[in-house]
Write a structure and sequence with these properties.
The structure is a homodimer.
Chain A lengths: L4 E6 L4 H12 L4 E8 L7 E4 L2 E4 L1 E2 L10 E4 L3 H13 L3 E4 L28 E3 L3 H17 L1 E9 L7 H15 L38 H13 L6 E5 L9 E9 L6 H10 L3 E3 L11 H4 L5 E8 L6 E8 L3 H17 L4
Parallel strand pairs in A: 1-2, 1-6, 2-5, 6-7, 7-8, 9-10, 12-13
Antiparallel strand pairs in A: 3-4, 9-11, 11-14, 13-14
Helix pairs in contact in A: 1-8, 3-5, 3-8
């Protein structure tokens, strides 16, 4: 008999939590029981899960009794509040916040890239930042074949990464502008920051707050997490992270330099065609390239516009798109759970 | 007595032509007479210019009789159709299309960068592509001081660069999506190309059609025009051009490598603070950075998010924003006319 698991979702009513529940319903993951947890405010709501009614409960320290896998996506402070309880009750915590990502004791995992890191877990496993996940999933096959010396990325990020309030703001603000009505930005670019700007019909070069070096935290997440996942501190990585008026689906303009001469675009396309979790969409003759509206709702990472740099023979440009709530968050977390089972770790 | 000029605007009812007329009304440029020209379809419409009613006329070969300066912005085929007539009648043609930009006989001018090139004109002067203009205007002060070895740019371009139909499509499509109604993309990414995709709440990595090397014409315009304007064929330039759901205001994530060691961010900021036509908006502590909604309707090029690359000491990243219909098109054309007068060329 196959082993089956008690899975808890913390942040069950959030943008990512909702996707996690949907994915757990659809995939064949062996579930014995599901606990849907939230703040006191959202507790009491009812959901149907695999045909049965489940009541959302307030997350409390003893909520993790008997839980095997706890999927957290309710903000870093909630993860920190309950991490000890979850682990003490024997659960493996898969955390979708930034709380533990750079903790040297915590594996930071994209299953297509570094599944082996799961073996070293001490109770907590971190799910990387959405913009990092899709980039490393697309670049890993290239790196394995030709080495990767440098990445320069500019992102085109959807608002859903900032949660349901951000989606609401984009939609109501878009409607206000189309109707010629007034509006007062209150959420974007960063809910907790001092100033707020129009996101509808605009592009804001700030995601998360600024760090001391004038990069934002989002940009430094892409830099530091990429190095940790690819286990290469010497890799050169720079990022500019920009919020655009898209609901779901992050796009990335990525420039890379490989470690070898004479690599061809055809070779890179061939690698990506075979790569797990990656879909090559690249045919300029038929205007085939990925875009957010097409990628939304899908689990894969889509890559196109691959072309050689005009000056550096080791340089290549490409366009990487994925649903930030799926591969960028919920789906990667479920894949981590699946990989734990497949590798016999849990 | 100051000399004054007969100015013609060809494409008077288009997105750029409308801005040209508005700017000519506002600036102190010495105008003796204005001719507003269009296709037969738009002819007959009336506009008020400096208090007088002007009837828009169909552009014909003899429309340029007595014209001193002809501002063209009605598409490349119209520019080619009337260039000889305009020049034969003694007009200086300032062409906002791509028809003559790479012609070695035609100066390609951004007045803040290469006004001296105007002296070599043979009747036609080309106004560069919108995305190129704002980038070179911002980078020229840096290049003059420290040299410029390399540019890698990813753009976030507004739809108004594709004309009034593109603006209409973005607005009606946005409304349809917000209202849950069906829609059929018919204009974006490129009106004349085979396939059309959703632009509302999306990002499309195609501007203009593809060239043989899998870059788009827009991307190759940025590469080739930048080298021509900066008079440096050896400069390394690469571009990824992306259309986003913004009405007006192009944004650019730009990575540069300068030719000198020990250049500081403070030095670059100091240069840009003094640069003509450039406004520095760069203070992470107060979330000050440029964005399209703020730049729309303004003539300047706005620069912010300036920071050193994390690996290459000669590398810097920045965010450059400008109104693509103004500095990117209409305003740069008027500035060319002004520079012709100031330099005594006309």
């Amino acid at each position: 008999m196959t082993k089956s698991y008690h899975v808890a979702v913390v942040g069950a009513t959030g943008a990512v939590g909702t996707q996690m529940i949907q994915l757990l319903e659809d995939v064949t993951f062996p579930i014995k029981e599901v606990s849907l947890l939230s703040s006191a405010r959202s507790a009491g709501k009812k959901l149907t899960f695999r045909g049965e009614e489940v009541v959302i409960k307030e997350a409390k320290p003893d909520s993790f009794k008997g839980v095997d896998i706890a999927l957290f996506s309710a903000g870093g402070s909630i993860s920190k509040q309950f991490a000890k309880d979850a682990v003490a009750h024997g659960a493996v915590m898969i955390d979708n916040t930034s709380a533990y990502r750079m903790d040297p004791e915590v594996p930071l995992v994209v299953p297509e890239v570094n599944p082996h890191a799961l073996r070293d877990h001490k109770g907590i496993i971190a799910n990387p930042n959405c913009s990092t996940i899709q980039m490393v999933a697309a670049l890993q096959p290239i790196r394995e074949a030709f080495g990767l010396d440098r990445i320069i990325v500019s992102t085109y990020q959807a608002v859903s990464g900032s949660g349901i309030q951000a989606i609401d703001e984009l939609q109501t603000q878009s409607q206000a502008i189309l109707s010629g009505e007034d509006f007062a930005p209150a959420v974007m670019p960063v809910k907790g920051d001092k100033r707020h700007f129009q996101i509808a019909f605009n592009a804001l070069p700030q995601i998360d707050v600024f760090t001391d070096n004038d990069y934002t935290y989002e940009e430094m997440k892409m830099v530091n997490e990429t190095k940790k996942i690819m286990e290469d501190e010497a890799m050169k990585v720079a990022a500019t992270c920009v919020r655009i008026p898209v609901v779901s689906g992050h796009s990335e303009s990525v420039y890379i330099e490989v470690d070898q001469d004479n690599v061809t675009v055809a070779q890179i396309k061939e690698l990506l065609e075979k790569a797990p979790g990656v879909v090559l969409q690249d045919d300029p003759a038929t205007q085939l390239y990925p875009h957010a509206a097409d990628a939304a709702g899908k689990k894969e990472v889509f890559v196109g516009r691959i072309r050689r740099d005009l000056d550096n023979p080791r340089g290549f440009h490409m366009w990487i798109v994925s649903d930030n709530l799926l591969k960028g968050a919920a789906w990667n977390s479920i894949q981590i759970a699946e990989s734990l089972v497949e590798q016999g770790i849990i």
